[in-house]
């Protein structure tokens, strides 16, 4: 059971609403003696932070993370690491006008029907603000992975599809990703994307996105059949992110279109090394990492809050209309990049620890 | 932690290898006083059973399930239900020739690297034979759901994409699905699919498939933020099935291509009823069921064991080749239909019980 | 896995060290729409609060609890309830003198050997200060139980043995318990206990205690065989409290001395009611509540920090001595009463919810 | 959630009723490449097997265990180990006379009230027959512990109190324990115990027992604060055994009577070794093993089924009487010795693996 907890050994539990005093998380099961600082975590927080470009939400949050426990003299103690992020831009009055309406595409209706009560301010618990806690937990996971596996490990995400606009994944360049406001890995697509998204924003609409994650330097043997498969846990991790509707591992949904020859990555040995001739499997076979790069991607649906008027009902079940006033966020998918990285880092560390428990 | 256990309250644990004496599962947390019979479970088992057409594996298994505990005088007692299925067609000698080779696309390599030992007979634990246990557990979940939610509930799966061949999902017809060997829901596609798959088989190759699941009559309010979201648990459940590489909820990966207007399903009320004008969300908003049909789909990669020779290495790391002798299974995805249904049924029942615990 | 989490459906996770900025907990799985206030929780906090009499620790803490999430307009929303308690009396310098020594009877040595690092300030995570979080979680559990089961439910604890001094349990009087500084339920023992404990304190020594818990008005049917038995979960809950070394259910360890006739509580019926002629079982049969009062008791070992000098070693493994300076706490068991009540409340609510999930 | 599953990483799930076709368990998370045989497991099964002396139940069971999965060519594969034990002596007709009555001291009433249905044959799931599965799982845990920690580890139990008859624990002799039908560790008490128990049996009554467990050679550092403390998990493990009503760690309930000086085991170092001058703590400080012997004891209540007539009610709530016909079991506690050993072995291995995951 884990309503608000993720993970098996390396676990984090998040709490908080968009417009409460703060949000935060507890990271439990972290290995001891790992040097950790708020500053290091803050770097990842800043990647997700809102208000960084005209293409993401204009909410102003510094998203400053504070560590309240579990770190002593700069090192983890093996006890729970509690982190808190105060909510600063809580303009709850903005939500008064919609407090009795259910926003289409949001979870307003389902939360209300489930719980019989809902915190309508900014979506309350359903707000993507919760993902800031994931990024904080993921930042710790990354630090631990680098410390115990080594510096060769890297977990990098990018937007590979922005609405109807693709990019050339063969031109993927890690250092390019942070240079443009779309986390696009292919420099040649940036200008086109910018025009496209400006148009979307101007029209008061929104678009979806596909984010691809690449984890390199991952040891072989992580993952556990049958119901803790590495890919099953990645799928759960990514699908739990707000607005995600699809998850692929390697060739993913496209596997259906392949032939057996194309699909089964051939293996070559020699000199004590194992090489695969392709990576349709996304680095995972039978739920266990193969030593290849782990490749996962996920789709984020278009921002549900748009300027254009939408039909809906109110709490009394009566028909009404709704629209967002002022500026909006034309593509929530963009900010999902650091969140996806964080979730993947947590899954990998968790499986690293599980594998150590059973198989080392 | 749950290497071989699935679920939170309604849980099942599976065990067994392809070529051991038997496989089986334990269903725990089942509500008491539910009438259950081996005969009823057998119906679902028979849907998955191999050797039913020339398009699926020719292994001969009756897959007869026996209940060993948890049912007294025809009713569940609330204690664990142990089920066993004996392995009959265990021609282990067939595997002697490949016992030192790693089959590309299979988990031979990763199991061996992880555990330092592997049961090479039929893939051992990695064999899709394990899924028979899932179908048995899912059969119980379906019986319980019908008993406690009512007969209006139905969970139906079909193959909607066979390799490069699609079908017209708007022609989906439940009663058609069981009439053709492909679980195709669109009668008009069956002949084309048959020709296509015969060709694939004859060429010694294989193809992938997409399976779509539709759960109807599901109450609003199932699912629990943030890390037990209904869709996250469905994603984990489906991705844990052998050879699955992608999972979609509703519009899924296609969400990326939609506009905000297309994506956010508008809501209409009146007369105490709630209707949605579309179902891009696949019946799940914020991880909670909306009362609409739950729509999930998943891709199964092409059968990795094909007649054509493939490059690989042996246990010593030396280069070699491998190919399957005799008949092969041109599309493992076909038999995934009842498995997908079973997993979805288990997830829904589990969340039904969780919701009852917290919110009723 | 649950290093710092307790419970199955109604779960709480605690964090924080004795001398960090704060401690706190997250309560997850709480039913929605339950009226909850900080004021109500504070009442239970105040029972555990240090510095209330000369017989308990002189640390000055207001132990003021703040709710950071999960409550909206005075009611629970079904989302995680985060609570924080700031540490005020953090005289960390007091611990400089013992930072390289392992206090006998404390977990200094085992924490250091396990983690390779320890927060020596006030014991860090091993400090009983953590139990303040349990009391906060338990306060919520009690409020929920009263709301959903009814006001007839009560969970009351008392000290029934103070060192070598017993009391007459047949004179148990709920209203007496809060009137004396020992939580003694038998008025006639209070004076003797006072003299005894003053003597202990004066001599620089300490004594243990037995706390008995009585839960009344508990429905029949709570608890789940085999490994979530109500008594097994109570045993785990109470044994997890700092310094607890023994747990009894009903006749407990004394069961060994009974005859079969004395032990098996006879049952009487009639008029639709079930009565037992005795309650050796402590209200639990086969791990399931019988409808009788649930009776559990636990022993708290004597305070390990005493004025008298004790032999020990330092971090380098060299022999040394240690003693506490200034005032000390002659019986830590006294303050365990509200903690035991809190843990029992959490277990009962958790099982109430589990039972509802499976059996209602 | 774990109705019928015990453990976190090394986990076992049991199933089966006293009078069904079989009982069994699945051991999950076992390390791979451990040599395991049915013969080795059978040795432990035989210790628990009924009908071995006139002092234990006369049910005739060979309790032969068969491994159905998870072991290949004599070694564990890291996949679930399924074990089955067929029920042979199923004289269900014996129970017809009591099928509508609730046996006092048993769980007949609580099972029926909870589930609305009960398998009355031999107690069904509540039967102590379930403990055979624990012994099988524990046998595997012991084999694994010896393999990965080394031969110096030993986990031994004995009856130290038989009804009102104690023994001299200072005369504890491992090799004596198996030589007498009471698992008594003190040779000098055996004759007295025999006379006492014959008397109890002749009188148609029964008595309780205290079992003490000693685990030697356990590494320092096992156990995890706060809610997975080693002692909390041992308490849960032992309290989950049928008829257990109390659990002590080290001085246990007796801690209450100690002074601070007596209680806090002083520590001595030198030459790289750590020695404690006493072991009141039972080898556990702050929930973590200290490297001393782990000492736990538990009380088993007297057999509830006795020859003498007892008052009870029937399913309709009417008053009636009940008594056992023929031979009975004068002290069920005796056979709890191998069960306690098994549970302790499982807890220790589980924590060994957890510790490896987080702290190695």
As a percent range, the share of helical residues of chain A equals 25-40%
The number of distinct β-strands of chain A equals 18
Low-confidence stretches of chain A: none
Please trace the helix and strand order of chain A, writing H or E for each element.
EEEHEEEEHHEEHHEHEHEEEEEEEH
Sheet-strand content of chain A, in percent, reads 15-25%
**Most residues in contact, chain pair and counts:** C-D, 117 and 117 residues
Describe the 3D structure.
Four copies of one chain form a homotetramer. Chain A has 360 residues and is α+β, with helices and mostly antiparallel strands. Helices cover 26% and strands 21% of the residues of chain A. Chain A has a five-stranded antiparallel beta sheet with strand order 1-2-3-7-4, covered by helices on one side. In chain A, strands 9-8-10-16-11 form a five-stranded antiparallel beta sheet. A two-stranded antiparallel sheet of chain A has the order 5-6. In chain A, helix 3 packs across helix 8. The longest helix of chain A is centred in the C-terminal third of the chain and has 24 residues. Chains in contact: A-B, A-C, A-D, B-C, B-D, C-D. At the C-D interface, strand 1, helix 2, helix 6, strand 11 and helix 7 of C face strand 1, helix 2, helix 6, strand 11 and helix 7 of D. Strand 11 of chain A pairs antiparallel with strand 11 of chain B.
């Amino acid at each position: 059971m884990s309503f608000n907890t993720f993970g098996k050994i390396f676990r984090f539990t998040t709490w908080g609403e968009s417009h409460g005093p703060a949000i935060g998380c507890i990271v439990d099961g972290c290995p001891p003696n790992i040097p950790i600082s708020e500053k290091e975590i803050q770097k990842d927080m800043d990647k997700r932070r809102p208000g960084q470009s005209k293409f993401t939400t204009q909410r102003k949050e510094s998203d400053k993370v504070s560590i309240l426990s579990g770190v002593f003299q700069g090192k983890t103690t093996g006890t729970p690491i509690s982190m808190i992020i105060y909510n600063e831009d809580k303009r709850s009055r903005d939500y008064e006008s919609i407090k009795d309406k259910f926003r289409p595409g949001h979870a307003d209706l389902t939360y209300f029907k489930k719980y019989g009560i809902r915190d309508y301010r900014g979506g309350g618990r359903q707000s993507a603000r919760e993902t800031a806690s994931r990024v904080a937990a993921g930042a710790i996971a990354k630090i631990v992975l680098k410390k115990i596996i080594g510096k060769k490990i890297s977990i990098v995400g990018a937007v590979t599809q922005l609405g109807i606009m693709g990019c050339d994944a063969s031109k993927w360049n890690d250092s390019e990703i942070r240079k443009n406001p779309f986390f696009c890995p292919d420099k040649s697509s940036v200008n086109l994307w910018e025009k496209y998204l400006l148009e979307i924003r101007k029209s008061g609409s929104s678009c979806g996105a596909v984010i691809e994650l690449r984890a390199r330097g991952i040891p072989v043997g992580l993952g556990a059949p049958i119901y803790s498969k590495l890919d099953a846990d990645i799928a759960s991790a990514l699908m739990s992110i707000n607005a995600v509707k699809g998850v692929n591992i390697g060739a993913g949904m496209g596997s259906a279109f392949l032939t057996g020859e194309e699909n089964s990555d051939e293996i070559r040995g020699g000199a004590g090394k194992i090489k695969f001739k392709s990576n349709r499997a996304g680095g995972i076979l039978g739920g266990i990492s193969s030593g290849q790069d782990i490749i996962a991607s996920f789709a984020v649906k278009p921002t549900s809050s748009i300027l254009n008027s939408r039909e809906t009902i109110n709490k009394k079940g009566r028909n009404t209309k709704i629209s967002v006033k002022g500026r909006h966020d034309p593509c929530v998918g963009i900010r999902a990049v650091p969140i996806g990285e964080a979730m993947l880092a947590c899954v990998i560390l968790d499986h690293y620890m599980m594998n150590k428990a059973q198989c080392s």
